[in-house]
Amino acid sequence: MAVSDFIGALSATQIKGLTTNTINKMDTDAVGALKSEQVKALSAAQFAAIDDPDEYANLKVSALSNVVVASLNSTQYADLASTATEKLVTSQIGSLNATIVSSFSSTDLENMGDTIKGLSSAQLQGLAGTKFSETSIVKLEASQVGALTSVQVTALTDEVAAKLTATQLAGLGAEGAKGLEANDIAALFSTTNADAVDNVHALSTKAIAALSTANVQALDGVGGGALTTAQIKALSTDQAAVLSADEIGSWGEEQIQALSAKQLQAMNVSILSPGQVGDLTATQIAGLDGAKIGALDETGFGNWDPTQLGAISATGITGLTPGQAAKLDSAADVNALNTKAFAALSDTVLAGLDGDAVIAQLDANHIKALTAGQIVALTDDQVTALTGDQLKEMSSAQISAFATGDIARFTKEELAEMSSAGLKGLQEEDIMSLTDDQLDELTGGRETAFTQDQTNWIIAAYMTPDTP
Known about the structure:
mainly alpha
């Protein structure tokens, strides 16, 4: 019978009777045969004898089964000597009870070397974050870093946190990310860290979303500039609101377009460069209110194509600045606006549109969209620029909105284009301001289209000599 078989068959009473000298002479096979019930029966002195200094001490300790290691109490573990963590193998480390692991010192963790990888999530979470050193933290697997609580991460010193690698950061979860502090962010993701870009890319979207606004603000041009489209999409509106010009200064088209309309609306959009403003999508633009539209760079706004201009909402258009409005310098630009936005243009903006280049070129839909307030605000030059084709599209309400004297600015040929419905909007002062030639073209062939009041006014106008 092998000695290991003999020892394995001993009762707890027999084990208690073994001398420390006998125990010390046991080889690795004999030690490995010990069962948890037998080990529990050993006194502190007996257990310590397993680890009495000799050339085979490490081998004997590593021969203990995982079941036996799991049964150790704190006193027995302590009797393995101060360097016990060096002697246990990875699988044994994972079998230690949480009470023992929680008592590990910073030195114990360092002495473990690579066997620290054997610690389970539950064991790790029993350790104070302050016990991790620059030496031990780098030995953790990504999954182990992911198991750290926010309290533990917060407790890491700046120097220790800075040692985390991209591979480890890939395992950092939302819980751990909440524990990062501004100093940690600066140490891991700024120009001071040669691996900053890789470190940022390693963060999961859940970790990004869990960062505090203070931590988002702590990112510099390198860290913020390295955010991927997936990470940008993961930002909350509160996080997006604190992004700085430095952080997004290097963002390209894909990064800018990764922002949702809600994120963009929450941001300080004045930090966008002309090129970035030009990169905004129709969906993003449609979500911006007047204050945000007005805060956009004027040069970038001026580079918008018809699709982008057409996305501006009726609310957004109200925020146009004089500089932005000046960029609407062609009929193509103005006709690109959706009719609701066009109808919401302020009198000031509308009055700034060139008569011949813009007003005279407005399409039928935009002519129909003109409000009474906009029509009465048209300048003399703009009224004169309106064509007969445009006049034909106007409703009676629009015709009646023209300021006194404006109807007389139309040529007789233009007045002839006015629709029968539009005629109904002519007021007494409008008709009385027309010359006989204008009246001839206006009324010719449709004498019965006028109201009784208008008929009386027309006769009165004919009877009144034209003003030279």
